[in-house]
Design brief:
234 residues, mainly alpha, 11 helices, 79% helix, globular
Length: 234
């Protein structure tokens, strides 16, 4: 890739590099936790290469350690990542002139960090396919290299299970959610989601709070978004 496209790709990688430093920290933690949960170094790396979804990967580790059925892992991943349907719709709007094939290719790189960077972050003023691909490539390389480093080092140390480090992904996600709250509707969704999650967790147990909340929040947001559009049109 040369010329303007190559410049856009490189610029996306450079601009995204500060975010990549943050990603590297919890990628290393994920690698260590993955090996601690019983995965080999190769399995940990394969998971990051093919899944590339930090929240789902972190949540999957205790489920794998507890011997959860494969279908529950698949259902959990689908539900937790339902927000990506909304992400994809917005990315499709930004790159509305691109072909369906291009949009399908871009969809693999839509994670919380790249989405936030290109929509509400500094990348929104430079939005282009090569630029977005640059942010995705930077995030993907960082996530996988961090996973390899964490898994390899922890596997080499062989110190058994580690606990209390999986807060990293939660902290980053909470920071992104907090920075994106702009009005009372956002606060309402956040409070209702938290309350619903606690109620389901205390009454049903297991991981059903993730599934129920993961379905309820995107549905609520889509209804609010549709209502907002209808109000504007009127």
């Amino acid at each position: 890739m040369t010329g303007k496209n190559g410049s856009g790709l490189w610029q996306g990688m450079v601009d995204f590099s500060p975010v990549a430093l943050v990603i590297s920290s919890y990628a290393i933690i994920f690698g260590a936790l993955a090996v601690s949960s019983g995965l080999s170094v190769a399995e940990s790396c394969l998971m990051s290469l093919t899944v590339f979804a930090g929240a789902s990967q972190f949540i999957a580790l205790p489920m794998i350690r507890d011997g959860s059925a494969t279908w529950t892992l698949i259902l959990m991943a689908l539900v937790v990542n339902m927000r990506h349907l909304l992400y994809g719709l917005n990315i499709g709007r930004i790159f509305k002139d691109e072909s369906k094939g291009t949009l399908m290719a871009l969809s693999f790189g839509i994670v919380d960090e790249t989405y936030a960077f290109i929509t509400v972050g500094p990348g929104r003023k430079k939005a282009s396919v090569p630029y977005f691909l640059g942010t995705v490539l930077c995030a993907y390389l960082t996530w996988n290299l961090g996973t390899l480093a964490g898994a390899a080092v922890f596997g080499w140390l062989n110190t058994g299970q580690i606990k209390g480090m999986d807060f990293a992904m939660l902290a980053v996600f909470a920071a992104m959610v907090g920075s994106s709250i702009k009005g009372k509707d956002d606060w309402l969704v956040l409070i209702c989601a938290g309350t619903l999650s606690m109620i389901v967790h205390s009454t049903v147990g297991g991981y059903w709070h993730l599934i129920v909340t993961g379905i309820a929040v995107p549905v609520a947001l889509s209804i609010m978004w549709k209502a907002g559009r209808e109000t504007v049109q009127q």
